[in-house]
Write a structure and sequence with these properties.
- This protein is mostly helical and 100 residues long.
- Helix content is 60%, strand content 0%.
- The chain is built from 5 helices and no strands.
- Helix 2 runs antiparallel to helix 3.
- The longest helix is centred in the last third of the chain and has 20 residues.
- The radius of gyration is 21 Å and the shape is elongated.
Length: 100
């Protein structure tokens, strides 16, 4: 279990989903999904936007679901980086586009 009880009676036992919800809501006014969202965003920031790593944490089958956690400004930066990398292909002397 990720979250365990610290009280004497249940020390070390995993907390129920309802218990986690109650604790998070009472302490910070957050909803558990906001905590999940924050954790996924933190993994993306800390891993230089490793989509597979964040996808594994989130348990998403479709990477498009994980991309929803990448902010708009970061998506634009990633798109610009992808275009920059593709531009390098066209500068190679031996690159010849295939005819369609």
């Amino acid at each position: 279990a990720v979250f365990v009880a610290l009280g004497n009676r249940s020390r070390g036992r995993g907390l129920s989903a309802q218990s986690i919800y109650n604790i998070v809501k009472a302490r910070g006014g957050w909803h558990p999904h906001q905590l999940r969202h924050g954790a996924i965003e933190a993994v993306l920031r800390g891993s230089n936007n490793s989509l597979p790593l964040a996808q594994a944490l989130a348990g998403h089958i479709d990477p498009a679901s994980t991309m929803l956690y990448v902010g708009r400004a970061e998506r634009r930066r990633l798109e610009a980086e992808a275009v920059r990398l593709m531009g390098g292909l066209f500068q190679l002397a031996e690159f010849k586009p295939s005819s369609a």
